[in-house]
Amino acid sequence: MRTRRKIPAEQVVLEEKLEELRRSREELEASRNKYALLYDFAPVGYFTLDGDGGIRSVNLTGARMLGVDRADLVGQGFEPFVAEEDGVIFADFIRTVFAGQQKETCRLRLETIEPQPLYVRIEALVTESGKECLAVLLDITEKKRADQALLESEYNLAKAQSMTQVGSWSFDPASGEVQASAELLRILRLRPEETTQEAFGRMVHPEDRETVMEHLRLGIEHGKVYEIEHRLQFNDGTMRWVSSIVEPSVNSAGKVVKLYGTTQDITQRKQAEVDLRNKTNELQTIFDSIGDGITVYGHDGLIQHHNLVSPQIFPGETLPGKSCRDIFHPESPSQPQDCPVERALRGERVDTSLASAPEGQKTRYLDITATPIKDALGEKNRALVFFRDVSEKRLQEMHLIQTEKMSSIGVLATGVAHEINNPLTSVAGCAEALQRRFRDDPALQKDVRLDVFPHYLEVIIRESYRCKGIIDHLLSFGRKSDGTAAKVDINRVLLEILELLKYQSGYQDIEVVTHLKPHLPRVLGDPSGLRQVFMNLLVNAHQATEGRGQVEVTTEQVGDAMASVVIRDTGCGMSQDILDRIWEPFFTTKEVGQGVGLGLALTYNIVKRLGGEIRMESRVGEGSLFTVLLPICRG
After folding, report:
1. CB neighbour burial string for 77-100, b if at least 16 within 10 angstroms, e if fewer
2. What predicted TM-score, i.e. pTM, was given to this entire model?
3. What does each C-alpha distance from 471 to 2, 421, 457, 554, 628 come to in angstroms?
4. pLDDT category, 454, cuts 50, 70, 90?
5. What range does the domain containing 218 cover?
6. What pLDDT is attached to residue 601?
7. What DSSP string runs through 13-67?
8. Number of domains in the chain
9. At residue 410, does pLDDT exceed 60?
10. Does some domain include residue 599?
11. Domain holding 315: CATH number?
12. CATH number reported for the structural domain that contains residue 572 in this entry
């Protein structure tokens, strides 16, 4: 009975042990399967390599990385999968792994069936037996590409900064740390070890340092982007201009944690700006110094620029933004085909004339030249318009025409005077012969029918000789000068001219008072020229005296060398602005056709040519006084 009880108890223990062993096997199998699964599907490749680099085992991830079935890989060498340029690196790596007991690492490029190369990092450790090593392959292709892209980006950035002369930098306000690109260090002429806040500050020009530091402080305190231009000054005394753009980086609390900036060398630009301003000032000065009005019209027919003269010609019409119609076609809002600006905008060169009559002013005559200004692309033209005031020239032309007419009339009058002089001589001679017969024949004197004949004959003779005297004066005055100097009796010349003037209409109302010094020494001069001088002065004096007035002529000797002729009138006188221009050729205050403006100019030139002087005094409403001084002839 004891034996029966004991056997079942031992059997139960044995069965329990067997069950425990079965469960352990199941757990071990499950664990083995679990780790095998983790081994095969790990995100890295596991390889077991021998000392020659042969593959003894590999997980599925490693097989997929090489693109070969796992069964086909076992027994092969790993080296055929290594890129040719990295073969030596792999061989040295395997030798190093088996020679030591530490984990070794290397990076290789592998050649697989994929067209793109595979970059891996291998970490390997030899086993305790020393016959094989365990290697882990990590795919770093994406990281390699990212590193290459980063290197390329950094290279391109450095090249771009070098080409554009732009350096980049960052500044940590808390630590004062400064980081700068190589281009910025080149701009600042600093070495890498000199990348400090103090070194950067020393490079700023002393006159700009306060402004630069103030902008930096405001950027740190307020976190605003700012831009500043300032100068750098180097130890050798040279100076450069830079432009900096600074952008703060702000944390969630609104505090500036870093400043990022770019600094560009703008010295050439600054110099170009200075040169451009100098050139612009030079061209503007040339532009303004031209005596003609110059206006530039844009392609839309509106004024863009003008010189200083244009507003003098057209005060309101040449302001920037004004249209060409304000000058050339104010009555038409559109641009007609004959508008010089419109034609120039179409590419034509235009020469035309314009008569302008501003309200309350005299008519002005302008020559217009419009020239197209082609742009670089040849698409839209502008127009350069010259305004030349030719009013004085036109008046001169009219005066010259009038002078030519007067000259022709003078020639004609001289010819007529010659023709009249001969018949007058005959008339006077016949009258004198009849007068002698009356004196010689007493019978004729007793004939009552001829009582009035002696009186008539006396009148005929007297008037004939008076006419002959006037004609002789005309011929003497109209005689051309041969330029020969002679002794001239000034009193006689003045009396001849006054004799001619008293027969002019309107001159009878003017009282002529003469104070001619007897026995006045003669002067050395051109008789014809002096006649013209005193004729001009006396005619002006008579014309300035309207209605009843007085003209006073005085001659006297001044010292031992000069004789003077003073002509005073009680006419209207002249203002100072007229006195300033009285000797200018073609300047006249008379209406067109009444005077050519040459008389006083010629008078001045003749007197100066004879070595004399001419002076003038005048007041408005009080009359004028001309004084002519001529050198006395000696010997």
Report:
1. ebeebbeeebeeebeebbeebbee
2. 0.42
3. 199, 7, 21, 26, 27
4. confident
5. 155-271
6. 67
7. HHHHHHHHHHHHHHHHHHHHHHHHHHHHT-SSEEEEEETTSBEEEE-HHHHHHHT
8. 5
9. no
10. yes
11. 3.30.450.20
12. 3.30.565.10
